[in-house]
Write a structure and sequence with these properties.
By secondary structure, the protein is an alpha/beta fold. It is about 40% helix and about 15% strand. The protein has helices at about 15-25, 30-35, 45-55, 90-95, 100-110, 125-130, 145-155, 175-180, 200-205, 215-225, 240-245, 270-280, 295-300, 310-345, and strands at about 55, 70-75, 75-80, 85, 110-115, 135-140, 160-165, 185-190, 190, 195, 230-235, 250-255, 285-290, 305-310, 355-360. An 8-stranded parallel barrel has the order 4-5-6-7-11-12-13-14, surrounded by 7 helices. Helix 7 links the parallel strand 6 and strand 7 (about 160-165). Helix 1 (about 15-25) packs antiparallel against helix 14 (about 310-345), helix 5 packs parallel to helix 6 (about 125-130) and helix 11 (about 240-245) crosses helix 12 (about 270-280). The chain starts with 15 loop residues before the first helix and ends with a strand. Mean pLDDT is about 90; it is low at about 180-195 and about 205-210.
Length: about 350
């Protein structure tokens, strides 16, 4: 499947920068600040972007590449472009249909959407809205883990995504708090923002009881009790990657939670070569945090990732124009990726190597 453009180039959806600007114009100030902010003094948030700026793509002219193949697979599931949307919450703040719009856009572009546990719409609702894309369901380790995994399986999902780096919310000295918008103004009680309910009711079911005492051994036991493969999201070190593999993870998402948990923490991209060497192709390795363009995607693939996960980019698209905004975001990434592959002489994603990029 080829992702094709559907919006005129002179619209506000003509570029990723334009989509972000449209999103921030449309959102109320507290929601915009929440979307843009990070933990601590936001040094990790900045580091995620700085890391990509240290790399460049090596052009390779006269290779004859004219129609590059951007397709990939993840755990047997096809991807028209090596991009998944992240399981971000607060989706009802950004657009009334929230993650339903994200999943429908992903389906129309031939890619996948990781459906969040703390979202405006239930697992079942999002799955029904776009079954071709809503195939991965995200959750945290907590006391109701087995009950929720059964619910996810019954809803028809194929894969679990277990977020392992968030037993509690990261300290927010900067970001929204420094700007006078504490998190509780957006995430309040059992509601998201302006009274939009958390459809999965996860606060009551156990999110409020997330327990730092969970261990890899306990997670291995909990996941072994159900029959879905699972992805470990929130890995940032080789040691954690090895532990996740030992616990049975079928894939790993290398992530610092978009700079919203530990601050200061390493940029995800900076840790990618080391983690990729540890994983050594045993399972798919995805990169999350800091991706803002197709150039970033190509750099991540060159340094060892099999695909990337986009959170803020998808949220900007959602806030700008709902399903159309998310779809256009993915289309723009696909257009840019094809162009870069032609200019770098890359016929397919298997041909992306460390030699594709160079340090600036």
């Amino acid at each position: 499947m080829t992702v094709t453009a559907t919006h005129p180039r002179d619209s506000e959806l003509a570029s990723l920068a334009g989509i972000r600007e449209a999103a921030l114009r449309r959102l109320p100030p507290d929601a915009a600040i929440y979307l843009e902010s990070g933990a601590g003094t936001e040094s990790t948030l900045r580091a995620n972007r700085d890391a990509f700026a240290r790399w460049a793509i090596r052009p390779q002219p006269m290779t004859g590449v004219s129609d590059p193949d951007t397709s990939a697979t993840l755990l047997g599931m096809p991807l028209a472009i090596p991009v998944l949307t992240a399981p971000f919450g607060g989706d009802g703040l950004f657009w009334p249909d929230g993650q339903q719009s994200v999943a429908r856009a992903s389906a129309r572009c031939g890619t996948l959407s990781i459906v969040p546990e703390v979202g405006t719409f239930s697992y079942e609702t999002v799955r029904a809205a776009a079954p071709a894309a809503a195939r991965i369901a995200q959750l945290h380790p907590y006391e109701s883990f087995s009950d929720v995994t059964r619910r996810i399986r019954d809803a028809g999902y194929d894969v679990l995504c277990v977020t392992v780096d968030c037993p509690m919310t990261g300290y927010r000295e900067g970001g929204a708090t420094a700007r006078g918008i504490p998190d509780r103004a957006v995430w309040s009680g059992n509601h998201l923002g302006d009274g939009t309910p958390s459809a999965n009711d996860m606060f009551r079911l156990g999110v409020s009881a997330r327990n730092p005492a969970w261990t890899w051994e306990r997670l291995a036991e909990a996941t072994a009790a159900q029959d879905l493969p699972w992805i470990a999201k929130g890995i940032l070190t080789p040691e954690a990657a090895e532990a996740a593999l030992g616990a049975g993870a079928a894939a790993i998402i290398l992530s610092n939670h978009g700079g919203r948990q530990v601050d200061p923490a390493p940029a995800s991209l900076d840790m990618l070569p080391e983690v990729a060497a540890t994983v050594a192709g045993r399972v798919p390795l995805l990169l999350d945090s800091g991706v803002r363009s197709a150039a970033d995607i190509l750099i991540a693939l060159a340094l060892g990732a099999d695909a990337v996960v986009i959170g803020r980019l998808a949220a900007y698209g959602l806030a700008a124009a709902g399903e159309d905004g998310v779809r256009r975001t993915i289309e723009l990434l696909a257009e840019e990726l094809r162009t870069l592959m032609i200019l770098a002489g890359i016929g397919d994603l298997d041909s992306v190597t460390r030699a594709t990029v160079t340090r600036r």
